[in-house]
Amino acid sequence: MRRLRSTFLALAGTAAMFALTAAPAQAAPGDVSTSCASVLTPAGYVDVSWGYSSSCGTQSFSPNIKQIKQLTGLPVGTVVSACASTYQPAGWVQTSSYYTSSCVYSSTPSFSNNAWQLKRVS
User: Fold this and answer.
1) Element (H or E) spanning 118, and its range?
2) What is the pLDDT of residues 23-69, one digit of tens each?
3) Which of the four, 23, 24, 65, 101, has the lowest number of CB atoms within 10 Å?
4) Is the Cβ–Cβ distance between 85 and 59 less than 8 Å?
5) Which are the contacts of 112, defined by CB distance < 8 A and separation ≥ 6?
6) pTM of the full predicted structure?
């Protein structure tokens, strides 16, 4: 019984890990999804916040999970806030930069600007 429980927990943990690391399949413009930090942010998306989750398999409390937002398909003139941990997609320009605690993506603390206000121009 104990071995069965351990196997079940291991499989459940693996399933949760795949759920977090899978890239969004058919995201609508503006949709936000969550992935482990080890997964590259797909083209057309930006990071919007960072955090910690034990489901992404690290022993430290460094940021290891991120929320990403789909920008492809948003209308010209749309303004969004994004973490500076990814580049802005083509057709978007940075209108300002600032510091926010939700965009701390490194275990080394810093109060430097780590977020952008982006505007869709084309």
Assistant:
1) strand 115-120
2) 555 789 999 999 999 999 999 999 999 999 988 886 777 899 999 99
3) 101
4) no
5) 99
6) 0.75
In sequence order, the 6+-apart residues with CB closer than 8 A to the CB of 115 are 81, 82, 83, 84, 97, 98, 99, 100, 102, 103
What's the CA gap between 66 and 85, in Å, rounded?
10
Closest CA to 10 of 57, 59, 64: 57
Residue 10: helix, strand or coil by DSSP?
helix
Q: Which of 120, 52, 112, 60 is nearest to 85 (CA)?
A: 112
Length of the chain: 122
End-to-end C-alpha distance for the chain, whole angstroms: 60
d(CA 120, CA 89): 9
Q: In what order do the strands lie in the sheet with 92-98?
A: 79-83, 115-120, 92-98
Cβ contacts of 33 within 8 Å, gap of 6 or more: 24, 27, 67, 68, 70
- 83, β-bridge pairs: 115
Distances in Å between the Cα of 56 and the Cα atoms of 8, 16, 109, 114 are: 18, 9, 21, 23
